């Protein structure tokens, strides 16, 4: 055994041969310390030893570090990169969260306190219905009444959820999955092709916010959506959405949209129709079937596919829906009933004031008569418009109580919403003459008073008959039947223009009338509604009630806000009314309005303004008074259209339909008791007997045609005998 010589330990040094420190020395020297060495140790030798020891230790660490750096990194570098990524991601997430919280707090602060939030009331709707309960129209901002989910077709909410928010019943107001999907689709497309908003977010925007696309608006939308989800059930949210969302073409809410595009209530909407409505929500104006039926149909097919994908419809139901015809809609609300709806809305504020809640307006309109009048006018223009240079027409029909049963303000509401029945003021021509003759009768003349039909001059005015012919001595009855202008001018000069104006206004003419001789030929402009209303005095035996369309206005809970109570008043003597009925019956029987004759006793008067710019016929039976007008909006002359042609024929066609199944009734008349002797310038005037009247509290009853005593055994009237017919 021998002893191995112990080797001397050599410590690693970082000094060169001259004792200088190397550049790789990272040890801390006394010069690097914050405090002087003298303050740290009083024993220099011990300090030196400690310093040497420290140098040795640091040199060993540095050597080891250099050795590690020179060796392969193996997995340490990878772990360092991944760790750094997660670290900085975490840091960024924290700061991002802080930034988002700041943005939310800032824009949320722009909103009122959440405790004051409330869903705003839906704009009030005015539901206008006919006298049989049928819907005429809805009016208001929305154009339709609000419905419960149970009151609409179940296909509608299903279609909307399928295409707009398939996870509606599972999300909390915001759909993260839907938002992520939309973001991915938009990034892939390089543009906005999808939206991530839920139905709740869309409702929040519609209820509270503007449509601007800003970060602030989006933040507020999310906050309000969360509030809505917290305070309302899913069913309530869906119901609010469907009643307030815009479907294009002026229709807001499913009821308005259903009526607008399909002409029926939302409860009757079919599967393909529901798909079309849901498809409109993407771009209501562009996809409207009133604008682009093909685009609307293609979008509806996308909705159907989504419904099938989500199991809402079967293959059979989808195939049936796809096989249906394309939905087409007029570019605007159509149907003459919308003239009525507009007139109701014009009148309503004066009856109930500001409309602050949903109301129901009951009207006097008979939809059967309304449709009949609309059809008659459209056919007349379609068959004669081009060849006779006439483009427009209007019709008003009123019963004895003043109730307007039909009112058509033009041939096509979709093309022109101007109401020619109420708003147009035109010259009535000879249709104004009955007021001149009635005023003369009240002054003491009779239907058999004679006047000389000849050329006359009144100041600088020379009235001429329509065809330039004159008939010499004629009775007032014959003069009215032939519509002789000369005789009418003579009568107004005898009676006085002011008297005629007063008489016409008493009967209901409200437009300004010029008190001059030319008024006898209808030179002052009037509306069709007021002229027709004034004529109702004749078949009622001298009683007048104001023309009206609205009978009652109620709230949805039945509170009555307004109710019309007719107040008939006598404005003309029974004798005068009876004589006018006899005279104007001749106009229909053998005068200028022979084209209007049908199987009910009728009377009336034609009217034609200068150069055939306006053509009128206003006539009546014991049941209805109806006025018809034809012309052009720009006042262009028609081609020889007179009141006895197109207007009289249209009146006939309408009244035949209106009197289908109605018992025949004679017009109130008068019974001559004796024949006075002739004298001077007139034939024997008939003495007036007692007219047939009712109980005195209402309107006069029409006499039974079988017992009317104005005819003899040969069926001739006294007028026929006197005139030698």
Question: Largest sheet, if any?
Answer: 5 strands, mixed
Beta-strand portion reads: 5-15%
Average pLDDT taken over every residue: 81
* Helix and strand composition category: alpha+beta
Low-confidence stretches: 1-7, 11-15, 21-42, 671-725
Record field, number of beta strands: 14
Shape: elongated
Q: Count up the helices.
A: 23
From the N-terminal CA to the C-terminal CA, the straight-line distance is: 176 Å
Estimate percent helicity.
40-55%
Strand order, largest beta sheet: 2-1-3-9-10
Question: Compute the gyration radius: what is it?
Answer: 46 Å
How does this model look, in words?
The protein is an alpha+beta fold and 725 residues long. It is built from 23 helices and 14 strands. The protein has helices spanning 37-40, 44-70, 76-108, 155-164, 176-189, 199-208, 215-231, 234-244, 254-262, 271-280, 284-287, 293-309, 315-322, 337-352, 367-388, 433-442, 476-482, 485-495, 497-507, 528-535, 574-590, 646-658, 718-722; strands at 125-129, 135-140, 359-363, 392-399, 404-408, 450-453, 472-475, 543-544, 550-555, 560-563, 569-570, 603-608, 614-620, 624-631. The strands form 4 sheets. It has a 5-stranded mixed beta sheet, covered by helices on one side. A 5-stranded antiparallel beta sheet has the order 5-4-14-13-12, with helices on both faces. It has a two-stranded antiparallel sheet with strand order 6-7. A hairpin with a 4-residue loop joins strand 9 (550-555) and strand 10 (560-563). Helix 16 (433-442) crosses helix 18 (485-495). The longest helix has 33 residues, at 76-108. The termini are far apart. Residues 1-7, 11-15, 21-42 and 671-725 have low confidence and may be disordered.
């Amino acid at each position: 055994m021998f002893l191995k010589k112990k080797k001397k330990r050599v410590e690693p040094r970082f000094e060169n041969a001259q004792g200088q420190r190397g550049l790789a020395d990272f040890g801390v020297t006394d010069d690097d310390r914050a405090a002087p060495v003298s303050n740290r140790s009083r024993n220099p030798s011990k300090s030196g030893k400690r310093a040497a020891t420290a140098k040795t230790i640091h040199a060993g660490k540095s050597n080891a570090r250099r050795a590690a750096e020179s060796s392969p990194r193996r997995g340490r570098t990878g772990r360092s990169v991944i760790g750094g990524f997660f670290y900085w991601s975490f840091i960024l997430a924290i700061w991002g969260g802080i930034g988002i919280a700041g943005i939310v707090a800032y824009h949320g602060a722009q909103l009122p306190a959440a405790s004051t939030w409330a869903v705003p009331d839906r704009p009030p709707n005015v539901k206008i219905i006919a006298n049989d309960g049928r819907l005429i129209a809805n009016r208001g901002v929305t154009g339709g009444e609000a419905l419960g989910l149970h009151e609409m077709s179940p296909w509608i909410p299903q279609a909307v959820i399928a295409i707009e928010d398939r996870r509606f019943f599972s999300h909390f107001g915001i759909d993260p999955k839907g938002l992520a999907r939309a973001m991915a689709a938009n990034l892939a497309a390089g543009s906005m092709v999808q939206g991530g908003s839920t139905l709740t977010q869309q409702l929040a925007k519609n209820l509270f916010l503007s449509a601007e696309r800003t970060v602030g608006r989006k933040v507020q939308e999310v906050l309000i959506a969360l509030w809505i989800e917290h305070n309302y059930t899913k069913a309530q949210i869906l119901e609010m959405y469907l009643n307030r969302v815009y479907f294009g073409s002026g229709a807001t809410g499913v009821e308005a949209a259903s009526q607008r595009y399909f002409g029926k209530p939302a409860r009757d909407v079919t599967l393909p129709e529901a798909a079309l409505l849901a498809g409109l929500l993407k771009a209501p104006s562009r996809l409207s079937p009133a604008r682009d039926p093909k685009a609307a149909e293609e979008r509806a097919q996308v909705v159907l596919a989504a419904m099938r994908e989500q199991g809402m419809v079967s293959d059979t139901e989808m195939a049936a829906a796809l096989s249906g015809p394309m939905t087409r809609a007029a570019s605007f609300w159509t149907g003459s009933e919308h003239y009525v709806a507009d007139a109701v809305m014009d009148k309503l504020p004066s009856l109930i004031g500001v409309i602050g809640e949903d109301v129901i307006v009951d009207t006097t309109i008979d939809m059967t008569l309304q449709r009949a009048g609309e059809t008659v006018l459209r056919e007349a223009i379609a068959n004669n418009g081009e060849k006779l240079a006439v483009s427009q027409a209007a019709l008003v029909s009123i019963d004895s109580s003043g109730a307007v049963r039909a009112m058509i303000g033009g041939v096509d509401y979709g093309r022109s919403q101007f109401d020619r029945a109420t708003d147009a003021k035109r010259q009535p021509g000879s249709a104004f003459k009955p007021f001149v003759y009635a005023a003369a009768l009240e002054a003491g003349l009779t239907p058999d008073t004679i006047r000389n039909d000849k050329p006359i001059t009144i100041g600088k005015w020379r009235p001429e008959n329509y065809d330039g012919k004159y008939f010499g001595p004629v009775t007032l009855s014959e003069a009215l039947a032939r519509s002789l202008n000369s005789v009418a001018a003579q009568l107004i000069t005898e009676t006085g223009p002011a008297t005629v104006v007063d008489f016409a206004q008493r009967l209901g003419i409200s437009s300004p009338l010029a008190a001059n001789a030319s008024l006898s030929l209808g030179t002052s402009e009037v509306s069709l509604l007021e002229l027709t209303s004034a004529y109702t005095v004749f078949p009622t035996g001298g009683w007048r009630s104001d023309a009206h369309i609205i009978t009652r206005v109620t709230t949805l809970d039945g509170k009555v806000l307004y109710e019309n109570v007719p107040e008939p008043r006598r404005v003309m003597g029974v004798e005068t009314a009876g004589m006018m009925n006899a005279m104007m019956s001749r106009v229909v029987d053998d005068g200028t309005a022979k084209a209007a004759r049908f199987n009910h006793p009728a009377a009336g008067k034609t009217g034609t303004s200068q150069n055939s710019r306006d053509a009128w016929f206003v006539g009546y039976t014991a049941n209805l008074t109806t006025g018809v007008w034809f012309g052009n909006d720009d006042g262009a002359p028609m081609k020889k259209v007179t009141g006895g042609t197109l207007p009289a024929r249209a009146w006939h066609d309408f009244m035949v339909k209106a009197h289908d199944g109605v018992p025949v009734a004679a017009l109130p008349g008068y019974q001559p008791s004796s024949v006075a002797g002739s004298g001077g310038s007139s034939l024997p005037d008939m003495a007036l007997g007692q007219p047939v009247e009712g109980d005195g509290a209402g309107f006069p009853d029409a006499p039974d045609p079988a017992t009317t005593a104005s005819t003899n055994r040969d069926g001739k009237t006294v007028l026929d005998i006197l005139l030698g017919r």
